[in-house]
Amino acid sequence: MRVLIVDDDFYSRSFLEYILHPYALCDVAENGEEAIMAFQQALKQAKPYDLVCMDLRMPEIDGATAMREIRDVEKDRGVPREQQAKIIITSVLEDAEDTHNAMFLGDATAFLQKPIEEKALLAEMKRLGLIAEH
């Protein structure tokens, strides 16, 4: 499995990578612009990401905009819906409107509020069929 971790906070990126490294090859991006470029490159190399963990509030391009771009890239390349990357929003936001926009307008798969708990992330990944139940 391949995962793209997108967060401008070093600690958050490192912690997610620590949780996910037993399950996946992890790449990191510090903002939405880097995420879009990494996502396009992965598709070009026929090594698409299975999961994107995306913070919403970041410099350059924010997470919601990056998500929409990623979904547009998948659409433009003809990636079938069932093969599209799962996108989990990882954010401290408690704003209902921002969360709603990310989930529905940005086409996110799930939302986890920071600070991320390892058990919650792994449970969400199991629910999404990314890792097997033990």
UniProtKB/TrEMBL annotation:
Record keywords, A-Z: Phosphoprotein
A biological process from GO: phosphorelay signal transduction system
Positions of transmembrane segments: none
4-aspartylphosphate: modified positions: D55
Domain of life, source organism: Bacteria
InterPro entries registered for this protein in UniProt: 2C_system_His_kinase, CheY-like_superfamily, Sig_transdc_resp-reg_receiver
Domain Response regulatory residues, every copy: 2-129
Gene3D superfamilies documented for this protein: 3.40.50.2300
Cited SUPFAM superfamilies: CheY-like (SSF52172)
PANTHER family assigned to the protein according to its UniProt record, in alphabetical order: PEROXIDE STRESS-ACTIVATED HISTIDINE KINASE MAK1-RELATED (PTHR43719:SF28), TWO-COMPONENT HISTIDINE KINASE (PTHR43719)
Record protein name field: Chemotaxis protein CheY
Taxonomic source organism: Fundidesulfovibrio magnetotacticus
Upper lineage: Bacteria, Pseudomonadati, Thermodesulfobacteriota, Desulfovibrionia, Desulfovibrionales
Gene this protein is translated from: cheY_3
